[in-house]
Amino acid sequence: MLERPPRIAYFPDSFHEVNGVAHTSRHFEAFARRRNLPFLCVRAGNRPQALVQEGKLWTLELPRGIFSFAIEKDLRFDPAYLRHFPLIGEVLERFQPDLVHITGPSELGMHGASLALQLGLPLAASWHTNVHEYASRRAGWLLRMLPRRQSEATGQTIEDTAMLITSGFYALAGVLFAPNPQLCRQLERATGRPCHLMPRGVDAQLFHPAHRSRNAADRDTVLGFVGRLSVEKNVALLARIQQELDQNGQGFRFRIVGQGIEEAWLRERLPRAEFTGVLRGEELARAYAGMDLFVFPSHTDTFGNVVLEALASGVPAVVTPNGGPASIVRDGVTGRIVSDEGFAPAIAELLADSARLDGMRQAARSYALTASWDSVFEGVYAAYRAILPASASTTVL
Question: Quick one: 61 and 83 in the same domain?
Fold first, then answer.
C-alpha cells in the first residue's frame, strides 16, 4: 500500500516578481496542483483574501508594508514582516506540514526557518541567488574609489563575508538544493549538508521556434538579451560587444527584454537597440523566437532560466564559463561558452556561418525538449526522503 505524500510548507523569497526564484516557485505550485499534492505556499503579495484553499493546495499571501524597501525595481524586503508571524504560525498549525522548504535569507525564509525550528520540523533550503557575488558587485561604487590592489582585496573580503553569513543560514537546513553541480559542491563544503541538484525546466510549447515572425524587409541580425538590467548581470558588456561588432561592419541590432537600474546607461550607448521592457507569456515567446542569437554575459546566475527559454525557442546562446548558464549550453553545439573578451569574436564567427548557426538552432531546441518541470520537482520530492520522518513518503510520485 502506498503511503501518503509529504505535506510541504514552501516559503519562497518572491513569487509574483520577474526573477528565477519567482519563476521556479510558480512552477512548483503548479506542479503540486497538477499532482494533487498537499502543499502550502506562504508568500508576499496583495490578495484580498490572505488564505486560499483549493483542494490540497493552500496559499497564504501577506502584504509587505510601509517599512519595506527596494532590493530590485520589483522586489522589496520588509523588516517589519514579523507582524505576520502569529498568522503564519496559526496556518502552519492547521496545515500540519511534514517539512518546511525555504528559498533564501529573506523575511519569508527567516520566518520559515524559525517556525520549522519552533515546531520541530525538518527544513530544506534551495539556493537560487549568488548573494555573495551580488554583494561584491553592488559595492562597485566603493571599490572604484580604492587603489586597484586594495579594491580587489576588499571586493574579495565582501564576497567571502557574505558567503560565510549566507552559508551559516543555509546550514540550518537538513538538505540543500542548488541549480548547478559547481554550486552544489561549494555549498556542501561550506555547510556540511548534502546538496541535491534542482535545475529548472522550460515550457517547450510556449517557447517554440514557431513563434518566429520577421518582416521580409528586416535584414538585421537580432542579438537578444532577456533579464534584469543591473550590474551583476554584466550588461555593460553589451555596449562593448556592439562597439566591437560595429568595427567589423556587422548589420545587427540588440533586442533587450527587461528593466533595471542600468537601462538609461544602456539606452545611451545602444541607440539602435529595441528596449521592450518586461514581457510575459506569448509576447515574450515571440521576442525570443525573433532573435538570431542570445547573448547572456552574466557571471553570477546560478542557472539562467532565460538561456533555457532561448534554446527552447531555437535560439543558440553565447554565455560565460561562470555559473549556471555554462551547465546548460554545450559549447559548439547549442551555443558558445566564452570569456568576456571572446563574446564579439564568437558572435561574429557564428553570424558568418549560417549553416553552423542553423545546426545549433536545431540542437538547441532538441536539448530544451529534455528539460521538463515535472522531472525537476519529482527529483526534489525524492531528495526530501533524506530528512523526512518514515511516516511521510514520496513513493506516490
Answer: yes
Query: What one-character DSSP code corresponds to residue 378?
Result: H
CA–CA gap between residue 246 and residue 248 (Å, rounded): 5
Q: Please tell me the distance from the alpha carbon of residue 24 to that of residue 43, in angstroms, as a whole number.
A: 13
19 plus 166 within the same structural domain = yes
Single out the residue of 189, 172, 198, 183 nearest to residue 322, CA to CA. Answer: 183
Question: Which amino acid type is present at position 126?
Answer: S
- CATH number of 189's domain: 3.40.50.2000
Amino acid present at 376: V
Q: Which range marks the domain in which residue 325 is found? A: 209-368
- Full pLDDT tens readout for the chain, 397 residues: 346 899 999 999 999 988 888 989 999 999 999 999 999 999 999 887 799 999 999 999 999 988 888 776 667 888 899 999 999 999 999 999 999 999 988 899 999 999 999 999 999 999 876 554 444 455 554 556 666 666 666 555 666 576 677 888 999 999 999 988 888 998 999 899 999 999 889 999 999 999 998 776 777 899 999 999 998 899 999 999 999 999 877 779 999 999 999 999 999 999 999 999 999 999 999 999 999 999 999 998 888 889 999 999 999 999 999 888 998 999 999 999 999 999 999 999 999 999 999 999 999 999 999 988 999 999 999 999 889 876 555 554 5
- Whether residue 262 contacts residue 236, with contact meaning beta carbons closer than 8 Å, is answered with yes
> How far apart, in whole angstroms, are the C-alpha atoms of residue 355 and residue 358?
5
CA dihedral 75, 77, 80, 83 (to 10 degrees): 60
In order of 224, 234, 247, 298, 304, the CA distances from 240 in angstroms are 15, 11, 11, 14, 22
State the total domains in the chain: 2
DSSP 314: T
Cell reading at 167: 552559508
Beta strands in 191-300 (DSSP E): 195-197, 221-226, 252-257, 274-277, 293-296
CB 325 within 8 A of CB 307: yes
Q: Please choose, from the candidates 133, 138, 8, the residue with its C-alpha nearest in 3D space to the C-alpha of residue 72.
A: 138
3-class secondary structure, 234: coil
Both 187 and 236 in one domain: the answer is: no
Q: Are residues 361 and 378 in the same domain?
A: no
Whether residue 2 lies inside any domain: the answer is no
Distance separating alpha carbons of residues 75 and 336, to the nearest angstrom: 32
